[in-house]
Amino acid sequence: MKELLTDLANEQAALDGLVADIREDRWAVMTPFPEWTVQDQISHLAFFDGAAVLAMTDPRAFQAQTASFPQDETVFEVTLEKGRRMTPADLLAWWRRERKSLLEALGSRGVKDRIEWFGPPMSVRTLATARLMETWAHGQDVVDALGLRRPATKRLRHIAQLGYITFGWSFFNRRLDPPDRLIRLELLTPDGDTWAWGPETADETVRGTAEDFCLVVTQRRHPSDTGLQCSGPVTEQWLLYAQAFAGPPTLGPKPGSFPKAGE
C-alpha cells in the first residue's frame, strides 16, 4: 500500500508539473475527451479526490452528496462547477489541498477497508488505484490537448491490472454476460520487461505495450489506433468495450482519432 500511495502521489505531481507553468489562456484549450477544457479536467480530478476523502471520513455526508447528483449524463457537469469559477492558480491550490487530504485519508485506513463509492463499495487499495488511473487518464487528455509528451512509467502497472480485472465489468456494465473464456494479457513494460496476467494456456491473448493497453481501457484511444494484438473474437470485443472506471457504459474515441502508435 505504501508503494501504491507513493505512485499515486508521483502521478499527481507529474500532471501538476505539466500544467503548473502553462499560460493562463492554455487552461481554456479544449481537450479531445470528453470535450472538456484543461481547466475542466483538473476540476474533475479535484472534485473526485475530495469526494474520496469525504467517503472515507464522513460516509453520511458522502451519501447525501451523491443523492443530490442528477441521474443522467449531466452528472459529470456537477464536478466542474466549482473549478470553473476559479482562476487557474486557485484551481491548482484547491487540487493540491484535496490531493494532500486524499493521501492522508488513504494512508490512515486499512488496506481492505470497504469504502462507499459511486457504484459498488470498494477496498481502500482499489480506491487508491482508481484515483491513480483517473489522474493518468485525465492527464492524457491534457497532454493531447496541449501537444505535450510524457514518458511511460512503471506506474502503469496499477492501471493495467485494473484494466484486466475489470474484464467482466466491461460486459456486465452493458447488460451482457461476460464471455466464459480464459484471457491472458501480456504487456511490454516501459523498461522492456513483460507484465502478464492470466494463465499461459488461456483461450485468447492480448499482447502489446502497457501504455497502449492503458490508453484503451481508460478509453483514451480506439484499439485500432494502437499496436495491441488480439488472438480471438472475445479479446477483440473486450477491447472495444473495455472500461476500467465506474459509471454508465461509454465508448472511447472513434478509429482514426489519433495517429496509430509508432507513426
Protein described:
- There is one protein chain.
- With 263 residues, the chain is α+β, with helices and mostly antiparallel strands.
- It folds into 2 domains: 2-146, Four Helix Bundle (Hemerythrin (Met), subunit A) (Up-down Bundle); 156-241, 2-Layer Sandwich (Nonspecific Lipid-transfer Protein, Chain A), CATH 3.30.1050.
- Helix content is 49%, strand content 10%.
- The protein has 10 helices and 6 strands; from the N terminus they run αααααββαααβββαβα.
- It has helices spanning 2-19, 38-57, 59-67, 81-84, 88-108, 124-146, 156-165, 167-172, 210-217, 233-241; strands at residues 114-117, 119-123, 183-188, 194-197, 204-209, 229-230.
- The chain has a 4-stranded mixed β-sheet with strand order 4-3-5-6. A two-stranded antiparallel sheet has the order 1-2.
- A hairpin with a 5-residue loop joins β3 (183-188) and β4 (194-197).
- The chain is globular, with a radius of gyration of 18 Å.
